[in-house]
Amino acid sequence: MRASSSLSSSSSVLRDLPVLLVAVVWGSSFLAVQRVAEPGTVVAMLVLRFGMVLPVLGLVARRALRGLSRTEWLGGAGLGVVLSGIFLLETYGAVHTSATNAGLIISLAMVLTPLGESALSRTAPPRAFLAAAGLAVLGVALLTGDGGLRPPTLGDLLVLCAALVRSAYVLTMARVLRNTDMLAVTWVQLVTATAVFCTVALSVGPPPWTLAALYGPAQWAWLLHLSLFCTLFAFFVQMWAVRATSPSRVSLLLGTEPLWAAVFGIAVAGNRMGPLALLGGALVLVATEWGRRTAPAPRQAEEPAPAAEPAPV
User: Fold this and answer.
1) Is residue 185 part of a domain?
2) Residue closest to 32 by CA, chosen among 187, 174, 230, 204
3) Which class for 206: exposed (0-12), middle (13-18), buried (19 or more C-beta within 10 A)?
4) Domains in the chain: how many in total?
5) Is 259 strand, coil or helix?
6) Where are the transmembrane segments (predicted)?
């Protein structure tokens, strides 16, 4: 009995580790974006970041793409539109508000996701999980805060919308991708998101090829990091994770992203953290482990979806 419990715990850790690695690379993306983009070149950079992934992923997923049904193509395209909205809202929101507000407000996705999951399943989340999520939000507030929230601005509202859309995105993937080839749908999502960015780039900022010509070797290295690790690896793992575990656990683990951003800021950019920020980082780690152990069980294991009827977007 004890051996069985130990194996189950080890399996849970192995399922959660890739998601935690996604939080790490996403934390490094803040530093990477600072190296390759300015407020006026955000959209052009997103076109390059996503566009570089498409040929590699398309080559790997070419056979699976032929097997996608019309519903799966439409579902992937819908998720791609949502994905593009997350990036645009979060990026432009961060430009128009403080880092304190952006970091705290986007972390609300950790609470919104389990609440949304519970609403869909009509079950109350465990109180311990809600307490862990609340502790994580407090940790993020201390980690990114500089005295508390001020009255909401346009940027605050945009980041809040990004948190709402991010939660909806995780929950939607859990329903749409139960019986779908993940690589193929990832490609459909990224193609759709890139098309949205290209459309926006026609009227916002410089063309992507102009920005690409201005990049040097160091900037191209950072852009490759954003494309291969922060985009391709991250979203593939995220889509796998919502099928192997619950959206609440995925959201909570990804909620450690601000902590890793602080780690990279200290180690690479030379930023400094005060005592309250260090305390906030510790609270995020404690809350993540607590929430991981108390998160609701995956619904997929209890209610498997039939392969012939994929959930619509």
Assistant:
1) yes
2) 230
3) middle
4) 1
5) helix
6) 42-61, 73-92, 98-116, 128-145, 157-177, 184-202, 222-242, 249-267
Asked if the structure places residue 310 within a domain, the reply is: no
Residue-wise pLDDT for 247-302, tens only, equals 667 767 777 777 787 777 777 766 666 787 778 777 877 877 787 677 665 554 44
Q: Residue 251 belongs to what domain range? A: 15-294
Instruction: Name the DSSP class of 305.
Output: P
Describe the crossing of helices 234-244 and 247-254 by its angle, rounded to 10 degrees.
Answer: 140
Q: CA–CA separation, 169 vs 156, rounded Å? A: 20
Question: Which token pair is 71?
Answer: 């519903």
Judge whether residue 107 has pLDDT over 80.
Answer: no
User: Looking up tokens 């939660």, which residue turns up?
Assistant: 167
Residue 8 lies in a domain: no
Q: Cα(113)–Cα(249) distance, rounded to whole angstroms?
A: 9
Q: What is the largest CA-CA distance in the chain?
A: 63
Three-class SS state of 312: coil
Give domain status of residue 80, yes or no. yes
Residue-wise pLDDT tens digits, 30-56:
778 778 878 788 899 899 998 888 888
Query: What's the token pair of residue 259?
Result: 């902590």
Q: What is the DSSP letter of 204?
A: S
Structure tokens at 135: 């502790």
Q: Which of 120-134, 159-173, 272-286 is the least confident region?
A: 272-286
Exposure letters 227-245 (e unless 16+ CB within 10 A, then b): bbbbbbbbbbbbbbbbebb
- Tokens, residue 155: 């940027």
Question: How many residues make up the chain in this entry?
Answer: 313
**Helix (DSSP H) and strand (DSSP E) numbers for the chain:** 16, 0
Q: How many CB atoms within 10 Å of residue 36?
A: 20
